[in-house]
Specification:
There is one protein chain. By secondary structure, the chain is α+β, with helices and mostly antiparallel strands. It has one domain: Peptide deformylase (Peptide Deformylase, Alpha-Beta Complex), CATH 3.90.45. The protein is about 25% helix and about 40% strand. A 5-stranded antiparallel β-sheet has the order 1-2-3-4-5.
């Protein structure tokens, strides 16, 4: 189900809780909402649809992938980016890394680890910040 986008900075600044298998509908709704907004969005976190759960959906090329309980475990190549957000007006500067290693669970709650670079890495970092209550 496509959900409305949350714009309340007080809600978005709250840390997300770990997701469990009971949160499958959140995962489905997050993917549906991202896909409905692909013309203006490349990633979303569950708090952007009103759910304080540690789930993100990210465009990885033409595909959309879900990361449940993502944690960035390594990073290298620091740079400064300017980013926009579907939940917040305008753009802001943010410290990012060109390469990151992420540990997460997939939609079947199987543990995954992957290395991401460039724009996909930037998107993941932005969405993990959302999970941590960091507004950029």
């Amino acid at each position: 189900m496509i959900r409305p986008i949350i714009h309340d900075p007080l809600f978005l600044a709250q840390k997300s809780l770990p997701a469990t298998e009971a949160d499958m509908q959140v995962i489905t709704d997050l993917l549906d909402t991202l896909r409905a907004n692909l013309d203006r969005c490349v990633g979303m976190a569950a708090n952007m649809i009103g759910e304080k759960k540690r789930v993100i959906a990210v465009c990885n090329g033409p595909l959309q992938m879900v990361m449940v309980n993502p944690v960035i475990v390594a990073r290298s190549g620091e740079y400064e980016a300017e980013e926009g957000c579907l939940s917040l007006a305008g753009t802001r500067r943010a410290k990012r890394y060109r390469q990151i290693t992420v540990s997460w669970q997939d939609q079947r709650f199987q543990r995954q680890t992957g290395v991401f670079e460039g724009f996909v890495a930037q998107i993941i970092q932005h969405e993990v910040d959302h999970c941590d209550g960091v507004l950029i």
